[in-house]
Amino acid sequence: MSERLRRTAAMTLIAVAACAGCGVYRTTSRTAGDIRRISVPYFNNATAEPEIEIEITDRIIEGIVRDNTLRVVDEAEADALLEGTVVEYRNIPFTFEQGETQIQAEQYRLFVGIRVSLFDKGKNAYLYEDRTIKAHGDYYLETNVDQNYENALEEVYRDLVEGILSATVQDW
């Protein structure tokens, strides 16, 4: 093969490789439609757990701000409205141990479920409606372990926020 032919083949190969790498990248928004600003009013609470809707809503807002794809604004300025209800809060025994006189719960599993809808104000239509997102976290009653109730609740909040972001912000 001549030197000139080798150079042409190499340049062609480099150009094809460069173009192939660009094929998976998009410069368009990761959100549905023209949504750039979102409002997240406090969720409703259909459970017996007091004020859990406040913490979940605050965590969702923090997650959207941290993701930096959408700007959180008040409802009047928003392109879309994220509405939700906490529909499940269950704290159930998960593993057991045999005590001297009875079986006792050793580990608990905390379940939290929310139902969310995303309303596009410009289109006056729901982009998704009544989507259920659930999360759970496990913990021990012993206070000397890292896997305690507070950490389980943090895990639940983190998973709920990820579920909201996955539902609201499209994948690349």
Secondary structure elements and their pairing?
Elements lengths: L2 H20 L14 E3 L4 E2 L6 H16 L3 E2 L7 E19 L4 E18 L4 E16 L8 H20 L4
Parallel strand pairs: 1-3, 1-4, 2-4
Antiparallel strand pairs: 4-5, 5-6
Give a brief rundown of this model.
By secondary structure, this protein is of the alpha/beta class. The protein has a single domain (31-168), classed as 2-Layer Sandwich (Double Stranded RNA Binding Domain), CATH 3.30.160.150. The chain is built from 3 helices and 6 strands.
Specify the CATH homologous superfamily: Lipoprotein like domain
User: Which whole number gives the mean pLDDT?
Assistant: 83
Shape: elongated
Number of DSSP helical runs: 3
What percentage of residues falls in helices of 4 or more residues?
A: 25-40%
User: What is the total number of structural domains?
Assistant: 1
Q: Poorly predicted ranges (pLDDT <50, ≥5 residues)?
A: 7-30
Fraction in beta strands? 25-35%
Structural class: alpha/beta
